[in-house]
């Protein structure tokens, strides 16, 4: 079985994020980029499928600027992916999800696959566009958000479960197809030291930006981020002095009405 | 029992800041991580130094004990209020006063939380190395007051090694500034050293100046199984022999603790044996060679299992830091802390398991192996006689093995009775003389650290 998994470098959730001076993007200075969240679950699921169908291979594909993208591809290789493709993103380009989907789908169509797994959204922009858009570009079915995905070797089909309101929808489907995975229903593994070392020596295939443009036409983002800012800082709390709970409640209602104006 | 009305009125008139006397609101100050509980009569968040000095003057006049409080994560009752005591809440003193890249120093308010400081310093390429397990909540003031440490203290040492200066309001109300911005000073005994680890008994810190270390380019966590019959006495010197791998942490977790962490914190630790957790520092250029070399060193010294890699070492330490909470879910109520020299580590493991068996309590073992520092965790009612006896026997075991009765948690209430075992009678009397000079009325955190205290007759020894 040939498996593809799409991943993306995202800022470490533990990083202190701040907008750039112009307030138009994330200030990437000092940001640590990691493979985490939905993407980590997607890699784990691809590896579990590979282990359940001997002879399978997993290729990790990521679109993004160097060197952060190469680093997360090496993380995926260290976890057990067999090969990796870096789709070059030129510095200065701020892609939107559709542009990312176009670039990634160009790389995906170079490799025949049975199943393409992708997190249902990235942990940073949470757009949730890339999976379905890649499926559309490639002309294959897509399913999401998927919370269970298994290979049935006897039937030669995938059994999957979608989370729907109040329950699960169980589906049997044949590849090639795209599956958008829910986060954290599997238990992502930790890389073994020998695999980390091996991953360092693995050659990462590169799809150049020129090749992407030749393939999908001049790639310009269709949307532009106009403003990026932190939530306003919280202002100080006001303590209510009181003798009885009734008095406290009365004061609270008065303040909500007169000062916060959240009550009529 | 509430504050006398006159005392309460005087407090509100004389001390600028927030005063809380409502018992419901005070419950959050009543305990720490030791499970001892004492509701304070009030909590005060003084607005500034002057307000703190006025608070001390007020406390002396009314003979009311004060206990400084940061994150409340102390494990031996250091921040549990003394009976009739007032909590001095420093959580709001969380200003970053100065970051000096040139001098590699930071000056902070005592209420700054460890992890917050870590994040702020990251963009300067600097960090404050001691990382206690409680780093998501513990404060720099608390670190300095207990000489706290953490996994990375294996390479970098305890908080004491990193405190360059302290400003404190003593129990006399005097403001004491000690320390130097220089890397060294040869100007008599170490006054700064007296304050570090003083657990709020000599003064309350109003500002802490810390030395900082440059962030290593690469830090990787390596976890591997510990064979059942491994002798640490024989293995550690070989594992760490020259050319020594650049370990910044060398930790141990027994199998039950690893399993508890996996259940409690969705960890991904192997569960089929005890584990060695290490952090290796490196550079981007050398990392591959360093990892290959350390893999060889592991297998040559008896660690034959395959290491797994935590590319984000902090993720490993945040997980490891939840050991105490994870074990609490499974009934553990005593979190101990002793250290012995490497050559006696095997005896510490054996002796601790034997004493647990003798007293019929379950024990979990984890800790900072590279520092000879174990945190035996016992499943026992913390208020029972059995708990007291288990603790006493562990203290005696550590002392018999040439170790210390507290490596990083402090003395607090629970170990105050044993202080003379550590320092001798003469040593304790010297400490008491310093206490009398700094806190003549015994208002600062009475009952802690010192075996006896004027405000608590007989002290914790009774």
Low-confidence stretches of chain B: 454-462
Mean pLDDT of chain B: 93
Strand order of the largest sheet of chain A: 9-8-7-10-6-1-4-5-12
CATH class of the largest domain in chain A: Alpha Beta
- The helix-and-strand class of chain B reads alpha+beta
**Percent in strands of chain A:** 25-35%
For the largest beta-sheet of chain B, the strand count, sense and barrel status come to:
7 strands, antiparallel
CATH fold descriptor of the largest domain in chain A: Rossmann fold
CATH class of the largest domain in chain B: Alpha Beta
Quaternary organization: heterodimer
User: What fraction strand of chain B?
Assistant: 15-25%
Fraction of residues in H or I helices of chain A: 25-40%
Distance between the termini of chain A: 63 Å
One letter per element, helices H and strands E, the order of chain A comes to EEEHEHEHEHEEEEEHEHH
Uncertain runs of chain A are: none
The chain pair forming the largest interface, with residue counts per chain, is: A-B, 22 and 21 residues
Explain what you see.
The complex is a heterodimer of chains A (264) and B (462). Chain A has 264 residues and is α/β, with parallel strands linked by helices. Chain A has 2 domains: 215 residues, HUPs (Rossmann fold); 34 residues. Chain A has 7 helices and 12 strands. Chain A has a 9-stranded mixed beta sheet with strand order 9-8-7-10-6-1-4-5-12, sandwiched between helices. Chain A has a two-stranded antiparallel sheet with strand order 2-3. In chain A, helix 2 links the parallel strand 4 and strand 5. In chain A, helix 2 crosses helix 5 and helix 3 crosses helix 4. Chain B contains 15 helices and 21 strands. Classes of the chains: A alpha/beta (264), B alpha+beta (462). Chains A and B meet through strand 11 and helix 5 of A and helix 4, helix 10 and strand 15 of B.
């Amino acid at each position: 079985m040939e498996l593809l998994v799409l991943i993306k470098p995202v800022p470490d959730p533990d990083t202190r994020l701040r907008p750039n001076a112009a307030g138009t993007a994330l200030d990437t200075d000092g940001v640590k980029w990691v493979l985490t969240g939905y993407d980590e679950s997607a890699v784990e699921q691809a590896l579990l499928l590979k282990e359940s169908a001997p002879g399978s291979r997993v290729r990790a594909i990521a679109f993004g600027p160097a060197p952060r993208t190469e680093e997360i591809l090496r993380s995926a290789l260290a976890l057990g992916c067999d090969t990796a493709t870096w789709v070059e993103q030129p510095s200065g380009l701020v892609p939107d999800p559709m542009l990312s989907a176009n670039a990634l789908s160009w790389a995906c169509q170079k490799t025949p696959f049975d199943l393409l797994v992708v997190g249902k959204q990235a942990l940073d922009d949470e757009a949730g566009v890339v999976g379905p858009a890649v499926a559309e570009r490639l002309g294959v079915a897509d399913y999401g958000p998927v919370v269970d995905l298994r290979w049935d070797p006897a039937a030669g089909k995938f059994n999957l479960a979608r989370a729907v309101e109040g329950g699960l929808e169980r589906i049997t489907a044949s590849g090639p197809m795209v599956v958008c995975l829910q986060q954290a229903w599997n238990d992502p593994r930790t890389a073994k030291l020998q695999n980390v070392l091996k991953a360092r020596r693995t050659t990462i295939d590169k799809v150049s930006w020129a090749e992407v443009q030749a393939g999908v036409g001049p790639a310009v983002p269709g949307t532009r981020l106009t403003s990026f800012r932190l939530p306003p800082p919280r202002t100080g709390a006001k303590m209510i002095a009181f003798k009885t709970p009734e008095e406290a409640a009365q004061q609270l209602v008065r303040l909500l009405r007169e000062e916060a104006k959240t009550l009529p | 029992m509430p504050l006398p009305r006159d005392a309460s009125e005087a407090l509100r008139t004389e001390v600028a800041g927030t005063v809380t006397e409502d018992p419901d609101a005070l419950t959050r100050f009543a305990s720490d991580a030791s499970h001892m509980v004492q509701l304070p009569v009030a909590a005060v968040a003084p607005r500034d130094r002057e307000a703190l000095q006025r608070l001390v003057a007020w406390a002396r006049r009314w003979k009311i004990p004060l206990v400084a409080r940061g994150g409340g994560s102390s494990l031996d009752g250091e921040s549990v209020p003394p009976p009739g005591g007032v909590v001095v809440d420093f959580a709001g003193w969380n200003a970053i006063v100065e970051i000096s890249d040139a001098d590699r120093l930071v000056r902070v308010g005592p209420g700054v939380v460890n992890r917050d400081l870590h994040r702020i310093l990251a963009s300067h390429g600097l960090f404050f190395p001691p990382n206690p397990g409680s780093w998501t909540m513990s404060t720099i003031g608390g670190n300095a007051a207990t000489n706290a440490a953490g996994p990375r203290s294996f390479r970098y040492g305890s908080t004491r090694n990193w405190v360059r200066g302290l400003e404190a309001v003593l129990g006399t109300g005097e403001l004491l500034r000690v320390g130097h911005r220089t890397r060294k000073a040869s100007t008599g005994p170490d006054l700064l050293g007296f304050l570090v680890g003083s657990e709020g008994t000599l003064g309350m810190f109003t500002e802490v100046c810390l030395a900082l270390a440059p962030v290593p380019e690469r830090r990787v966590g390596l976890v591997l199984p510990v064979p059942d019959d491994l002798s640490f006495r024989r293995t550690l010197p070989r594992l760490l022999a020259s050319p020594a791998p650049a370990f910044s942490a060398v930790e141990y977790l027994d199998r039950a603790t690893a399993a508890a962490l996996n259940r409690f914190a969705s960890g991904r630790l192997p569960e089929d044996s005890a584990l060695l957790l290490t952090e290796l520092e490196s550079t981007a250029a050398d990392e591959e060679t360093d990892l290959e070399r350390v893999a060889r060193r592991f297998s040559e010294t008896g660690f034959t299992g395959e290491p797994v890699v935590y590319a984000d070492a902090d993720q490993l330490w945040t997980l490891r830091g939840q050991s105490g909470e994870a074990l609490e879910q499974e009934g553990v109520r005593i979190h101990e802390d002793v250290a012995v020299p490497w050559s006696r580590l095997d005896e510490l493991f054996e002796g601790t398991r034997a004493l647990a068996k003798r007293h019929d309590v379950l024990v979990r073992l984890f800790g900072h192996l590279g520092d000879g520092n174990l945190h035996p965790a016992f499943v026992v009612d913390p208020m029972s006689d059995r708990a007291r006896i288990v603790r006493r026997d562990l203290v005696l075991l550590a002392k018999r093995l040439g170790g210390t009765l507290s490596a990083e948690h402090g003395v607090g209430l629970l170990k105050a009775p044993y202080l003379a075992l550590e320092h001798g009678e003469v040593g304790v009397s010297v400490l008491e003389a310093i206490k009398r000079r700094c806190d003549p009325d015994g208002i600062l955190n009475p009952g802690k650290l010192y075996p006896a205290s004027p405000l608590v007759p007989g002290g914790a020894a009774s």
